[in-house]
């Protein structure tokens, strides 16, 4: 499977799902209560929802740029900083929705095969704590890009559930529902 055929179809449905969860929060809660969710945390030592939403987008954008061998645009650094600052400045749900929509648009604009680096090519991934991961493109996609993306998506889902937004498994994996088929009932 190519990286483009793996990552783009992973990122877009889950980003779309995150956007739908925010829509549900707005529909289910008074405006101020829904906006306050952006400051909610799953645990005190974890980033708030506003950060999780941004970092999910960052993970998708980093994966897209890194596998194309392209430098990160300034927008990625800005999203990282906004995420780090979200405890004090969470922004609004409308702003979060705009970030998600822009990320979806960027991923959807990829040409076929755009991410299809040589699976054995070297990826050097510098972490904010000064450590460096030396990976192949295949290891990066499988062991970093996808798990890190899902980590932030799942934490966002868990915060919303924990704070009373009525979302469930069908909201988390809405993109697979079209593949369901009924099983015939025995008489």
From TrEMBL:
It comes from the Bacteria. This is DUF1993 domain-containing protein.
């Amino acid at each position: 499977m190519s990286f483009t055929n793996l990552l783009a179809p992973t990122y877009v449905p889950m980003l779309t799902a995150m956007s739908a969860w925010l829509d549900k929060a707005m529909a289910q809660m008074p405006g101020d209560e829904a906006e306050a969710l952006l400051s909610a945390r799953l645990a005190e030592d974890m980033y708030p929802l506003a950060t999780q939403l941004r970092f999910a987008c960052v993970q998708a954008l980093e994966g897209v740029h890194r596998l194309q061998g392209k430098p990160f645009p300034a927008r990625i650094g800005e999203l990282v900083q906004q995420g780090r600052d979200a405890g004090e400045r969470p922004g609004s749900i409308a702003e979060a929705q705009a970030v998600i929509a822009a990320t979806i648009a960027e991923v959807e604009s990829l040409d076929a095969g755009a991410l299809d680096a040589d699976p054995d090519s070297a990826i050097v991934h510098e972490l904010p704590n000064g450590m460096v991961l030396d990976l192949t493109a295949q290891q990066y996609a499988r062991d970093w890009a996808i798990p890190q993306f899902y980590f932030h998506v799942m934490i966002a889902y868990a915060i919303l559930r924990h704070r009373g937004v009525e979302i469930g498994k069908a909201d988390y994996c809405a993109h697979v529902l079209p593949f369901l088929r009924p099983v015939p009932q025995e008489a």
